[in-house]
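Worked example

This section walks through a single chain of length 466. The input is the sequence exactly as stored; nothing has been trimmed or padded.
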Amino acid sequence: MKNDSGTVAKRYIVLVISTATGFITPFLSAAVNIALPTIGREFSMEAVLMTWVVTIFFLSIAVVQVPCGRLADIYGRKKLFIIGLLVTILASFLGAIANSVPLLFISLALMGMGSGIMFNNAISILTSVFPADMRGRVLGISTAGTYAGLSTGPFIGGVLTRAFGWQSIFILCGVMSVVLLALVFYALKREWREAAGERFDYVGSITYAISIVLFMYGFSSLPSILGVVLFLLGVVGFTLFARWEARTDSPIFNLDLFRKNKVFFFSNLAIFISYIATFAVSFLLSLYLQYIKGLSPQMAGLVLITASVLMAIFTPISGRISDRIEPRLVASVGMLLNCVALFLLIFLNDGTALLYIMVALAINGLGIGIFASPNTNAIMGSVEKKYLGVAAGTLGTMRTAGMMVSMGIMMIIFSLYIGQAEITPQYYPQFLTSIRTGFIIFTVFSIFGLFCQLVARNAGRALRSE
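Given that input, the structure is written out below as tokens.
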């Protein structure tokens, strides 16, 4: 199957694989989110430790995405994709038998690694196979798989948790991964290696992995002395990483993409800030609906579906529109809607009507649905083909880092207001204060993200006029 002469049927099999890949990771995340109170009670977790159930998953994704994006460009995207699937299957098995917090965290860490490798290569293979005038459309469909996972995850996760226990979520993800592996072996007959023969930067990869772990673990431990020390070590590590990458002949992270490509830089910055502002929404509302409103996991999942359904519906639509209208303009409209939704959620209290919450979720879902695929289209369309793996890795890292910072902010807020206590009725007032504080901070971030998206739009217009 060649990029310029492959059959339509084979191209669309690649689209199915990419969409299914995009489904699995957010499905697991959303399903585990809705099962968090059950998991927390089973293992007697306090509030801050519960946030690590989500954070360790995304931290592992962030560690592998940039190095594995470069590995895929050199050694083959299909090869790395298969490795990611195998790791995901192993992680699903471990999660299904997890009977302790350490084993649960190990399974989530492996699941994150496998998911990070899979996501990178699904996006870069898809971009390689389809022509530029169809990129927004197919990226929109693929991204819709992500939001389909988010929309079905809370409901299916709630049903599975109630009927079979939270371990069944991992079993289902394992089954889906096995089916996807079979489809890959059947359908993908060629390899993509635009940077074949180039050297892989091991020093940069190790420095990057250590730095991001120190940075995020330190961030999550603030304001403790240990947290400050680890956070600063992470910052120093990233500084050393950037200096090394600027000097090496074959970097895993091409800094010129940021220094010389303003569209790439500001579009990535916009998606990073967008995920900081919006990712913790489902986490917080899942806890709010079950603790404050007393809903079952299944009912809470049905409420949270509001946003994800609209994401799944509007992502392919906005992707198609971004093939005809400037994608950065479309993405800016989506970011503006996110600002409105987050502002509404600042006013949550124990008497807030479910209808109010669902309206805010609907605006949030519409905003993300309009923003996501045009932003991805702008990023992937701004680089040469030899850098598609790195671009996909950077995109994934910005997304994952945003998720981790979002959860890290809530870790800090929970530690300040609740401390090491479990979320029990006596701590509900502090819990509500934590939620409102979080949404104030996320609203400010969303406004800044809108500014970055508008800068990216102006940079794209200036580039076209040259």
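What to look for: Residues 201-249 form one domain.
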